[in-house]
Amino acid sequence: MKILNEAPIGVIDSGVGGLTVVKEIHHYLPNETILYIGDDARCPYGPRSVEEVKEFTMEMAEALAEMGIKMLVVACNTATAVTLDMLRERFPFPVLGVIEPGARAAVHVSSTRKIAVLGTIGTIKSKAYENAISSISANVEIIPLACPEFVPLVESGQYKQKNIQPIMQKSLEPLAHMKFDTAILGCTHYPLLHDQIQEQLPAGVTIVSSAYETVRDVESTLAGFNLANISGARKEPIFYTTGRLEGFKSIATDWLGIESPDVRHIILGKPGCQ
Ligand code: DGL
């Protein structure tokens, strides 16, 4: 099967978190068209079993493959941690995740070699960041912390509200007296809470999000596979959600600065499997 340069890049996440990666692709790769699926109806993936995350992620990937994408970006750490090999075996197009780029960026930034990883229960359990970091550099101490309260705050659109401060404080309290100089936002939803997270971390900690590093990987992979769209004719992104259109639309408008994003409903999986 010939993969077309003009074909869109597919981006998937359990919900609106992958929009943090879309924002970077949209900005840095102005020729590329994006098709996005957020599985908001079944979000969060973090507390789900590995089997469920694999099944739901495969459903999103299959739907985008049918729409004719040329590359898939798994813009979800929880899914990246457990599905990359499976997706790469299944599809003819390149499949990229967000964990390796985030790990690379953090190792680059940290001078004390003590790095905190904030993520979902699934990502922290998988030890995917420990594995990625140790394959880049030896002797880095990782301080993992699951923050299961954060994704619901973002999905419900409360990420800008002042009254979430006590939740942020309680979730990040275990890090208050720890020594580290870098914190990875190991969940693509967390950049929407960047300032609130920074406020609760010890002074001087640098926050790293994988979104920017991921777009560098997208760019080099497009070049490597000769898949970049050089025709310069990008189309507006289309966003599919399994959840409520209005909630998705308002976060997409706010985060991406797109006035009227094209948000559509999609049904995935078997009925009742939500
Ligand atoms: N954005 C997903 C991630 O990066 C959120 C996971 C969830 O749905 O719990 O892990």
List keywords for this structure.
six-stranded parallel beta sheet; globular; 2 domains; 42% helix; 274 residues; Rossmann fold; binds D-glutamic acid; four-stranded parallel beta sheet
Write a brief caption for the model.
With 274 residues, the chain is an alpha/beta fold. 42% of the residues lie in helices and 16% in strands. It binds D-glutamic acid.
Q: What would you note in describing this structure?
A:
The protein is of the alpha/beta class and 274 residues long. The chain has two domains: 9-97 and 212-265, 3-Layer(aba) Sandwich (Rossmann fold), CATH 3.40.50; 99-210, Rossmann fold (3-Layer(aba) Sandwich), CATH 3.40.50.1860. The protein contains eleven helices and ten strands. The chain has helices at residues 19-28, 50-66, 77-90, 99-109, 121-126, 128-136, 150-155, 165-172, 194-200, 210-224, 245-256; strands at 9-13, 34-38, 71-74, 95-96, 114-119, 141-146, 182-186, 206-209, 238-241, 262-265. The protein has a six-stranded parallel beta sheet, with helices on both faces. Strands 6-5-7-8 form a four-stranded parallel beta sheet. Strand 1, helix 1 and strand 2 (34-38) form a beta-alpha-beta unit. Helix 1 packs across helix 10 (210-224), helix 4 (99-109) packs across helix 6 and helix 4 packs across helix 10 (210-224). The radius of gyration is 18 Å and the shape is globular. It starts with 8 loop residues before the first strand and ends in a 9-residue tail after the last strand. The model has no long low-confidence stretch (mean pLDDT 95). D-glutamic acid is lined by residues 13-15, 17, 43-46, 76-78, 120, 123, 151, 187-189.
